[in-house]
Structures are given as structure tokens and as C-alpha cells.
Amino acid sequence: MFDKRLLKEMPNARPYIFKQVFCQWIALLMNILFTLLICFLFIHLYENQITMQMIINVLISMLILLVIRALVLKKVTHYSYLGASVVKKTLRQRVFEKVLDLGNHYQDYVRTSELVQLSVEGINQLETYFSLYVPQLFYSVLAPLTLFIITAFWDWKSAVLLFICVPLIPISIVLVQKFAKRLLAKYWNSYTTLGDSFLENLQGLTTLKIYQSDGYKQQQMNQEAENFRRVTMRVLIMQLNSISVMDIVAYGGAGLGSFLAIFHYQHQTLSLFGALFIVLMSFEFFIPLRQLGSFFHIAMNGIAASEKIFKILDLPVEKQGHLKMDSHFDICLDHLSFQYEEDRPILKDVSLKVQPHQFIGIVGESGSGKSTIAKLIMGYHHYQQGNLWIQGKQRYDIDDQNFMEHVMYVTHDPMIFKGTLRDCLDIFHQYRDEELWQVLKKVHLDLFFQEQDGLKTFLLEGGSNLSGGQKQRLNLARALLKNSDLYIFDEATSNIDVESEEQILKVIQELSKTKTVIFITHHLKTVKDCDCIYVMDKGCLSESGTHVELFNTGGIYHKMYQKQQELEVYGCE
Ligand SMILES: Nc1ncnc2c1ncn2[C@@H]1O[C@H](COP(=O)(O)OP(=O)(O)OP(=O)(O)O)[C@@H](O)[C@H]1O
Ligand SMILES: [Mg+2]
Predict the structure, then answer these.
(1) Measured from the CB, is residue 369 less than 6 Å from ligand 1?
(2) Who contacts 391 (Cβ-Cβ below 8 Å, separation ≥6)?
(3) Which residue's alpha carbon is at the smallest distance from atom 6 of ligand 1?
(4) Cβ-count burial of 50 within 10 angstroms (0-12 exposed, 13-18 middle, 19+ buried)?
(5) Going by fewer Cβ within 10 Å, which terminus of the chain is more open, N or C?
(6) Residue 163 pLDDT more than 70?
(7) Nearest one of 147, 100, 152, 92 to 119, comparing CA atoms
(8) DSSP H or E stretch at residue 387
(9) 366 CB less than 6 Å from ligand 1?
(10) What residue spans define the domains of the chain?
């Protein structure tokens, strides 16, 4: 019924909860006074002792009470809103910060679609928990207690009976809670699974259409939607049923209390005033808890979502390094082994060196572990065995922020943000127009954008109005603009035509005279001029040397090179 952790984690929401309960309590007191005035009026009417002045005084008092009640209830809504906004803001910020702490590999732990659903819908459900349910829970204890003390003043037996019946409502809530918890966990799983499939299928709709499997996927999604509908209906049935149970308890309890009061009046152990007051107030004992019951299901939904949110917030963040590095650094992989999953080694005892201002090539068949080496250097994953030294310091001891200032990682799948070309190239608006055109020229995009709107050319989300090659070239231009000490190019020219690729390679070679460059590629011709080429084979470093050395050794590199040349000749014929 009550999640201590949620309240502990949200200290900012507590003052609003307290103020809300206090205002509700004042409204209850106004209600009690109002009922007392009704009883007073009724008794005097009944006994024919009423005067005009009396009626006017009572009506004015009632009006004042109603105004005060309306004002405090308005305050309740106001505090409820403030509490909810604090909770939403704090939780969303914490989830966001956690994802940042987890770093680029947060997807290893949590799916993006689940993250989006929990941050939007899940946190909205928690808003109800904090702004309605928790204040109502405290009020539901305070209100019957206040009413008990006041009614006991007239007839303690009726007061005790009403007070005893009140806990029957929370007991019925607790009984359904066990069942509700399981059902709501199912509901959330079904909801996030459906959201996940929906996002994936929508993003991959073109691919599905090409493979004519959109119909099949539709059927699968229909099934998932049907499961979700069923579990939603079960949740609704459970909610309606439990509300009916609470109604029976509330009306039954109020009836019993009223009956006892009337009985005592008949036996002249209670005045008419007292009996009337108890009858009018008896249902008031149950209203707060009945209201709590109707918030309960939304709150349970919020708690189910919060369990998932806390699972994300509790994810262990790998140890952050704090050492700083300077711009002149070497990289050394020393008997390095790594695996993403248990018992599936990806890198096996790899040792290689990258000296400052060297032009290094890493080649090998697909899946041989080239990108994994780049990701380990970038610090996306922690290696299990061996060492990765950067300027004599373990990679994981180096502060990531500081590392990123010195390194540029360019992949084949660039992130292009929606906005103008200028915004995309120069996020912090720190370069002059000439500098931007200079890099665009280097990657052969100057003419293309000049024909359009120049630096104001609008790029759609993900660069969807650019070709694959244009996106890669734009990504290269952005990388060249940032003055880094180490550039890692991972298949960064894979979509670019041969002619442009040669020109871009020249730019990269020029870059390697003043910077360190690691060039990962399948295309062996592009690494011919490297100072050293490392050849990966099934997670092991099989060969290393210059192009000439490797070619003359007659090993894997030689075979791969010859094969590629044969294919090129064949392609030209
Ligand atoms: N996040 C991951 N989780 C589990 N396994 C992974 C993950 N990323 C890569 N792998 C596995 O690690 C192996 C090496 O992948 P890697 O991306 O390093 O290869 P690569 O040499 O860069 O290949 P390519 O030339 O195709 O880009 C592959 O067998 C792949 O299945
Ligand atoms: Mg790769």
C-alpha cells in the first residue's frame, strides 16, 4: 500500500504532501461545523424555537464555512500540482542523468523504447501516486480519527462501531493488492513489449516491405496488441470489482453506525441532536478511504512503473576514471582479452602499439574484432584481461570527459541532427563561415551545398534528405573541424565513391602528419600508406607491419589483398 523508497527518494515532494493533507483536514473541520449548524437549525425548527435572526446568523455562518472550504480545497489542488511537477521533474532528470552515467553503451542494459515509455507514461502514473494517493493515504488516517474523537463526545459506542468498520476498506485493498501487483507487472511488461515492437517495425517498415514480411509482422503485432488488450481488461475488471467491494463496506458501515445511533436515541441514551449529527457524519468516516481505494489502482500502476524505473536507477555504473592526459600520448594494448558475453571471447590476447602521429591501419575479415578494439579504446566497455595503456595509464583510470577532448571517433553510421548545415557542423557556433566551407571542400560537399541553401541548408532528422555517402562525408567534415589529437576512422569511407575516397584519404594522410590516426577498414588499398598495419583474424592479432612487409610475408594480408585486386579487375572487365 505504501512504498517507503518512493517517498524517501522524493524529499522535495514531502512538504507539498504535508500541506495538502493539512488543507484537506481544514476542509473536513469546515464540513463538521457545517453539519453541526444543520443539526442546530433542524433541532430548533423541530422544537419550534427558531427566530429569523437565528436563521440569518446560521446561513451567514454556513456561507463563511463554504467559502473557507472552497479556498482550502483550491489550495489542495494547487499543492497537488506543485508536488506532481516536482516528482516528474526530479525523476525524469534522474533517469536522464543515469543514462548519461551509463554512457554510450546504455543499450546494453535497457532498451530505448522502454526508457521512453517509462520516462513518459510511467512517470505520469507516479505523478498520481504522489499528488493524489500518498496525501489521501495520510488524510484517510487523520479524518476517521478526528471524526471518532468528535462523535465519541455524543455517543462513544456508535463512534467505536464506525471506527472499527473503517479498516475493513484497507483490508479489502490489501487483499486485492497481491493479485493486483502480479497483474500490473504483467500489464507493464506487455505494454513495453508492444511499444518495443511498434517502434522497431515502424523504423524498419521499408525493410519489412522489401522482404514482404510486413503482413507477418502485422500479425505478430496484432497478437501482442491482443495480449495487451486482454491484460488491460483484466486490470479494469479488477479495479471495478474492488471499488464495488469498497462501496459495500462503506455503505454497510455507515448504515450500521447510523442504526446504532438511532437505537440509542430510541432508548434515550442519545440526544436527537447527537443522533442526527452521527447519521449525517457516518458516511464521512468512509469517504476518505473509499477515495483512497479509487486512487489505489492508479497508484499501484505507478508503483509497478517505479519498480522498473528503480531497476534502471540502480544499475551499477562502472568505475569512472579521474586521471587526466595530455595531447601527446601513445596507446598500447598489452595481452588484451575481451568478451561481450560469457564464454564467447571476442578479442584474444591482443597486443599492439600506436605511437603519437602514426598512421595505423587495422584490417581483417568482418567480425574479427576491429570495431571492438576501437570501442575499448573509446572506453565503451571494460576489458576483462590484460591492459590497455594510454600514455602509461590504464584506460579505465582516465577521465572520460578529458579523453573525449583529445579523441575523435568517426563511424560509418553518423549521427546527423535535425537543423541547418551550420548547426550540424558547428554545434557551438565557434567557427567562421570560411572555415566551414574549407572542410566541406575537403570532403567534396562544397558544390553540393552551394547549389542548395549554403550553410542554411536544412537537414532533416538523421540526415534523411542526404545520401549515405553525403552523410559520411558530412560526418568527416565535422570530425576534421574538431582539432583532436587522435582520430579513429571505423569504416568511415565505406559508402563513398572511389574517386572521392581517394581524395578524402589524401586529407586523412595529411592529417596523420600532425595527428595520430587509426584507420579501420576492409578496403586494403586504403591502408597501403600506413606506418603500420595490424591484421585481425577471429579475435587474434595475426600479422603486423607495413604494406610491403605484409605483402612479402605471403600471409593472410597477402591473400586478402590479392583477392580484392582480383575482384577489382573482374569488376572492371
Ligand atoms: N554489443 C555486442 N554484444 C555482443 N556481441 C557483440 C557486440 N558487438 C559486437 N559483437 C560481436 O563481436 C564480434 C566482433 O565484432 P566487431 O564489431 O568488433 O567486428 P568487426 O571486425 O568490426 O566487423 P566488421 O568488419 O563487420 O565491422 C562479432 O562476432 C560480433 O558478433
Ligand atoms: Mg566494425
Answers:
(1) yes
(2) 325, 326, 328, 329, 330
(3) 340
(4) middle
(5) C
(6) yes
(7) 92
(8) strand 385-390
(9) yes
(10) 87-313, 331-572
Burial class (CB in 10 A: 0-12, 13-18, 19+), 534: buried
Report yes or no: 364 and 299 within 8 Å, Cβ to Cβ: no
Residue 62, H or E segment:
helix 52-102
Q: What is the mean pLDDT of residues 354-363?
A: 94
pLDDT for the residue 571 = 54
Question: pLDDT by residue (tens digit) across 182-198?
Answer: 888 888 888 888 888 88
HEC secondary structure over 97-109: HHHHHHHHHHHHC
- Mutate which of 105, 337, 338, 372 for ligand 1 pocket (most atoms within 8 A of beta carbon): 372
CATH no. for 87-313: 1.20.1560.10
Please tell me the residue having the least CA distance from ligand 1 atom 9. 372
Burial class (CB in 10 A: 0-12, 13-18, 19+), 430: exposed
β-pairing, 385-390 with 393-394?
antiparallel
- Give distance in angstroms: CA of 417 to centre of ligand 2: 23
- CATH number corresponding to 331-572: 3.40.50.300
pLDDT of residue 301: 76
CB 465 within 8 A of CB 459: yes
Sheet holding 540-545, edge to edge: 407-410, 486-490, 516-520, 359-364, 532-537, 540-545
Instruction: Summarize the confidence of residues 358-381 as an average pLDDT.
Output: 92
The C-alpha atoms of residue 236 and residue 231 are separated, in whole angstroms, by: 9
CA of 371 to the centre of ligand 2 (A): 4
Query: Does 166 score more than 90 pLDDT?
Result: no
Q: Confirm or reject: Cβ of 516 under 6 Å from ligand 1.
A: no
- Lookup: cell for 532: 603500420
- DSSP letters spanning 559-572: HHHHHHHHHHHHHH
Residue 546 Cβ inside 6 Å of ligand 1? The answer reads no
Once rounded to an integer, what is the mean pLDDT over residues 517-526?
Answer: 91
Grid cell digits, residue 27: 476542509
242 φψ region: left (φ > 0), alpha (ψ -120 to 50), beta (else): alpha
